[in-house]
């Protein structure tokens, strides 16, 4: 997919045909991202909205106010909210400090991640509208994430990724595979909070068919693993969303190298991808 980089007064923009990826610039665009999240999580995937969410048909919480919202926009659908077809929520240390914690801290002890001296970034609320769940759209979204990581010197990204369903035993193969083959190193390993901890070691190593286990993983988790990602200790059952969550942690050097080497950018050239600082 041919991708063109533009820069304007609002920051970076990556374009591929009718599709553009950039940060949300207005409250209306953030609300459009929340509406897309509602359509995917609550209408398509049958998560349980609060009464306020159901009334407004938006997925929202206090973390939205301290986050950057990465958008995929289809210009063939116009310039209004209906043009937002993909989104990712990005939270840095300063945003988490304003609200008191990262979102992941409601499920995991992330003290080791927070103790990392470099810049860290929490990723969450990832979704793409059904007709756009192609490799090209996801690749463009990931290029936007890579641009953000590169500009902000992010060294570690982390968050919670989900497997469908709340029956851990039904997920014993992918959960056991993740634990035995992709457990994060102790120095950075998140651990599920004691009251939410579900053991991932449901099968011994010798009973794991790696090919079958990988096939059972959601595409997003497989994407993180391809970038060298690891998982934390323990899964968490999320009753509201009807999912089983795992903590993901990724060192970003492979991300920036993979998505920027063809631009031949050096760190002193960073103004080419300048962001507006809100």
TrEMBL record:
<comment type="function">
    <text>Catalyzes the first step in the biosynthesis of ornithine lipids, which are phosphorus-free membrane lipids. Catalyzes the 3-hydroxyacyl-acyl carrier protein-dependent acylation of ornithine to form lyso-ornithine lipid (LOL).</text>
</comment>
<keyword id="KW-0012">Acyltransferase</keyword>
<dbReference type="InterPro" id="IPR016181">
    <property type="entry name" value="Acyl_CoA_acyltransferase"/>
</dbReference>
<keyword id="KW-0444">Lipid biosynthesis</keyword>
<dbReference type="Pfam" id="PF13444">
    <property type="entry name" value="Acetyltransf_5"/>
</dbReference>
<dbReference type="InterPro" id="IPR052351">
    <property type="entry name" value="Ornithine_N-alpha-AT"/>
</dbReference>
<keyword id="KW-0443">Lipid metabolism</keyword>
<comment type="pathway">
    <text>Lipid metabolism.</text>
</comment>
<protein>
    <recommendedName>
        <fullName>L-ornithine N(alpha)-acyltransferase</fullName>
        <ecNumber>2.3.2.30</ecNumber>
    </recommendedName>
</protein>
<comment type="similarity">
    <text>Belongs to the acetyltransferase family. OlsB subfamily.</text>
</comment>
<keyword id="KW-0808">Transferase</keyword>
